[in-house]
Structure formats: structure tokens, C-alpha cells
Design goal:
511 residues, alpha+beta, six-stranded mixed beta sheet, five-stranded mixed beta sheet, 16 strands, globular
Length: 511
């Protein structure tokens, strides 16, 4: 039997996290909380083969395995370089200092009596444990850098408001001073003696959607009086490692991307140019909700073809962009979580990287065959997702004019409502339902050809395709036509799996 290496497990964890699959250990058993269609037979076989190593990681704190040991410790310094994702976000925040777009809000309900001091002390302990919450950002010699403070002051705001509802957060969410950590804000609202709400606001520079689970898990453990084991590595180690593009792992990833983009770009006769001048203009959005029968058919089709719901819908998105643009080449970016690959599963921070999938839809191809190539491209992108997106753009720009031919045509995100128990429950807190897009792992990047981001929002018995043009490039009618056309692709492919791309009718054919 082939042995399972640490690299195999790291890649598997990245694939599972990107597919929205959560792992937990329960009485010595490995439990998967997975969206419908996210785990096919091949992926399940890999999980079973890696069961012992996965259980070991889950029961020893996640970040103490071999992957963490391979990530070198950063040399002590006053200032550290930002990671690739942080750099993009930091410069955007500098341009729009009053924007709160890049902040992540959680609203939690506490039933019964509450010890406010205990809640505040728990949050203070979290700030001491996680360097990201003690991190400040500034320009040093005109270069963005961050520093980790040994101590910072955290105070929990306390208010009494008998009329408070979970939507009353406008006065709480306000801009952070990036130079003055913590980039965490908390408020405890007392509605009555036996009902409180805890509001938590975090800046995306130090906290992404996947940070919620380790944050909640640590909160629950500290609130119970436990002391979580110290992390083997921290975010500064990751940031310094990622900035070393000459390192062995990143060099291998670069070679992969050189191969992916070795062929000259194929564009239509009148290619759409990049348009950064539209940044900050009004967005346009439209959505389509799939019916229950369509959702059932999508699941059956994916199981038969060895696809996940995410890879199937990404292939349909590629085709919709192909039909809209007339291009024979489509490149779509999607987010990957880099935690597992470097042994930092238990850490807070911005570990999201954008990776591109390049495909060549042709009318003669069976959609099923084409979707398999997109699936393979997605898996290869995940396996080489540690290479920073901005560095990839610079690398590819040597062969294509990025001002007229951006690297990607659009972006793809998928969020799935959790099916397992909330980690907050261990501390007696209940998550309030909010905007499902808050669970999306990546904010859209505004340097793609059409400034289009497709968000797939999956819940129990629901599947929404929401397309947003994040600038004023396209009008609302055009955005609506593109997402309806994608829904038509989905509708016809699951009804007739043997159809070719050229035979797919447009949205007007769906009744």
C-alpha cells in the first residue's frame, strides 16, 4: 500500500476546505460535515486512506504536524512584509479609509445570565494568544509592513438596549485605525437579564471567513477555563515564507503556472480592456434560484460524472462567460485557503489566495468532457495554490498585455451553510442568521476583464447563483442575462448529459 505523506495530507486538507468540507474528531471517529455533492467516491477514498493522520492533527491542535515544522520560523524583526493577500487589501483600504467593506461582523446570542467580565477576559486572552489581533499596519519607507505588539488594550463595550435586534449594528461597525491594534472590536448588548448579544467586528487584514472556526473554538475553550496549546507557527512566519519566491515549494508552483499559461492567450476580435478607472462605481447584481428538482438533478449529475457541485457550477460559469464574450479562452479565479498546506489550521489571519483556472470551451466538445477538464484544472490549481496571485500576475504579464488582457475574466465563490454543530455552542452562544455572503472566503478582486463575481450560495434545499458586476461596466440587464444564461446551461446539461457546448440553447429556451 502506498504510504501517505505529509504533503498528501496537506493537499487533501486544502481540497476539503476549498470544497466547504469541515472535519472534526468525535470519540475517536473522523466526522465530515460536507455540502451536498462535495465529497465524491475518490475524495472519500483519500479521506479514509489518511484517516489516522487527519485524526492526529485534529486531536493535537491542527498546527503541530509536519507541515508546521516545514514552515520556517521568521527571524525576529520590528517590521514584517505583508502577505500577498494583505498587500492588495491594504492598498485598497488606504484608497478608501472610511470604507467598512473589508470588515467581518458576527452577532451571537447569549441566553440566560451572563458574566460580562468573564466574556471580556476571554476576548483579552484571545488577543494575547493570536498575534494577528495584536498586529498593526503602516508604511515603512513607502512599503507596507506590519508589526506585532507584545501587549495591546482591549475593552469590551457594554450597553443596555431593551429594543435591540441583531440587525442594529450600524453604529458598531466603523472604520479601524490600521496602525492601532487590536483590529478586533466587541460589544455586549443587554436586552434583559436573561438575553444578551455579543457583537464582534474584525478587519479582513487579520481575519478571513475560515478564521471563524478557530476563533470560536478557542473562545469556547478559554471560556471554560482551559488553555489551548501554543501555536507552532504564526502568521508572520507564513508572510515571510510567502515572500520568499525562491523557496523550493514556491519554485515548483511557479513551474506549474508557467506551463498553464505557456500558450499565447486566445481573445476575440474585439477584446474588452481592463478598466481600473471604474473602481468604486456602483455595482450591478442579479440572481437565479434553482428549483428543488433542478438541485436534485444537479446532485445526481455530479455523482454520475465524478464532479462536485462547485466544479460543475464553475464549468457552467466558464461556458456562460464564453458565450457572453465570444472568447475561445476563459480564465476564472477562485479562492483557496492556504492554512492546511503550511500547518496553520488553528491560526487566525488572511490565508486566502486567488488561483486561476484556464479553459478552452469549444462548440464541438461534450459539456461532460469539458467539465472534467475544468475539474482537473481546479484540482491542479489547489495543489499549486500557494504561489501568490499578484506574483503570478507579474509572471504572466511578461507574455500578455495586462492593461488590455487581464489574467482572469471573472471570479467564482461558493459558500455553504454549515451542517454540523456550531463551535460557539460549547460556550453557550448561538450564531444569528445573517448575510450568507459573509461566509464567502474571498472578497472579489477588481482587476478582471468583466469585474464579474459569481457567488454560489448553498443552503438546506436551496441553491442561489448570484452574479455581481462590481463596477458600472455592465448594466443590470446584461448581468441578469449572463446569470440566466448560466442557469440555462445548468438546466439543459442535467436534462441531457450528452449535449455539446454548441448545442446548449440560451436562457430564453428555459420555461
Amino acid at each position: 500500500m502506498t504510504s501517505i505523506t505529509a504533503a498528501d495530507v496537506a493537499g487533501l486538507l486544502s481540497r476539503l476546505r476549498t470544497a466547504g468540507v469541515q472535519l472534526r474528531a468525535e470519540n475517536g471517529r473522523l466526522v465530515l460535515d460536507a455540502p451536498r455533492g462535495a465529497v465524491d467516491d475518490d475524495l472519500l477514498a483519500l479521506v479514509r486512506a489518511s484517516k489516522e493522520e487527519l485524526l492526529r492533527r485534529l486531536t493535537t491542535g491542527g498546527g503541530t504536524g509536519p507541515a508546521a515544522a516545514r514552515l520556517p520560523a521568521a527571524a525576529p524583526a520590528r517590521w514584517y512584509p505583508l502577505s500577498s493577500g494583505q498587500q492588495r487589501l491594504y492598498y485598497t483600504q488606504l484608497l478608501y479609509p472610511d470604507a467598512v467593506t473589508y470588515q467581518i461582523l458576527d452577532v451571537l446570542r447569549l441566553d440566560g445570565p451572563v458574566e460580562a467580565a468573564r466574556v471580556e477576559n476571554t476576548l483579552r486572552a484571545l488577543v494575547r494568544r493570536h498575534e494577528g489581533l495584536r498586529t498593526g499596519f503602516d508604511l515603512v519607507d513607502d512599503e507596507p509592513r506590519f508589526t506585532v505588539h507584545d501587549e495591546v488594550d482591549f475593552h469590551l463595550e457594554r450597553v443596555t438596549d431593551p429594543g435591540f435586534t441583531p440587525g442594529d449594528t450600524a453604529d458598531f461597525v466603523r472604520p479601524f485605525d490600521l496602525t492601532a491594534p487590536p483590529l478586533l472590536r466587541g460589544r455586549l448588548v443587554e436586552v434583559r437579564d436573561d438575553l444578551h448579544y455579543l457583537l464582534l467586528d474584525k478587519h479582513h487584514l487579520v481575519f478571513d471567513a475560515a478564521s471563524r472556526e478557530p476563533f470560536a473554538r478557542d473562545f469556547a475553550r478559554i471560556h471554560r477555563g482551559e488553555t489551548p496549546p501554543p501555536p507552532a507557527r504564526t502568521y508572520k512566519d507564513f508572510a515571510v515564507w510567502q515572500n520568499d519566491l525562491e523557496g523550493t515549494e514556491l519554485t515548483a508552483a511557479a513551474a506549474h503556472w508557467d506551463t498553464v499559461f505557456s500558450a499565447a492567450p486566445r481573445v476575440g476580435p474585439d477584446p474588452v480592456k481592463a478598466h481600473p478607472e471604474l473602481f468604486g462605481t456602483d455595482s450591478r447584481r442579479a440572481h437565479v434560484d434553482l428549483t428543488g428538482e433542478e438541485i436534485r438533478r444537479v446532485g445526481a449529475y455530479c455523482r454520475a460524472q465524478g464532479l462536485t457541485t462547485a466544479t460543475f457550477l464553475q464549468a457552467a460559469y466558464h461556458v456562460a462567460l464564453h458565450r457572453f464574450s465570444g472568447q475561445d479562452e476563459v480564465v476564472v479565479g477562485f479562492p483557496v485557503d492556504l492554512r492546511a498546506g503550511v500547518g496553520l489550521d488553528d491560526q487566525l489571519g488572511l490565508f486566502v489566495n486567488t488561483v486561476p483556472v484556464r479553459s478552452f470551451p469549444e462548440d464541438r466538445l461534450l459539456f461532460t468532457e469539458y467539465a472534467a477538464t475544468v475539474r482537473d484544472g481546479v484540482l491542479a490549481a489547489i495543489d499549486h495554490g500557494q504561489y501568490p496571485y499578484d506574483a503570478l500576475v507579474d509572471r504572466v504579464s511578461a507574455r500578455r498585455n495586462m492593461s488590455e488582457d487581464p489574467l482572469v475574466d471573472g471570479f467564482f465563490n461558493m459558500a455553504t451553510e454549515g451542517t454540523g454543530p456550531s463551535p460557539w455552542a460549547a460556550a453557550g452562544l448561538t450564531e444569528e442568521a445573517g448575510d450568507p455572503k459573509a461566509a464567502l472566503p474571498e472578497l472579489p478582486c477588481l482587476t478582471c476583464r468583466f469585474d464579474l463575481t459569481l457567488s454560489v450560495l448553498e443552503g438546506p434545499g436551496t441553491l442561489r447563483l448570484e452574479l455581481e458586476c462590481t463596477t458600472a461596466l455592465l448594466d443590470e440587464a446584461t448581468v441578469g442575462r449572463i446569470v440566466r444564461d448560466m442557469a440555462a446551461v445548468v438546466h439543459h446539461v442535467v436534462a441531457d448529459p450528452g449535449t455539446t457546448i454548441g448545442a446548449l440553447p440560451g436562457a430564453e429556451a428555459v420555461t
